[in-house]
Amino acid sequence: MKRLEKLVTAVSERRIPSYGRIIPAVYDTEDIPDLVEFTECVKILRTLLKDTVEKWNQTSRFAGHIEGK
Question: How many domains does the chain have?
């Protein structure tokens, strides 16, 4: 992950827009704990976003317009 961090930092310092930051990465066994933690964080975020959208759809007066109703 340190290599990826250095690459991202270098790209950021050049002020490349976020849509231009496609960065391939090669991981090794040292990265596994970080990747597992990242996976769990993404799962939690996905659940939070889903719950938030569902709640918003139940309470928002604009929800019907978004869904095409």
Answer: 1
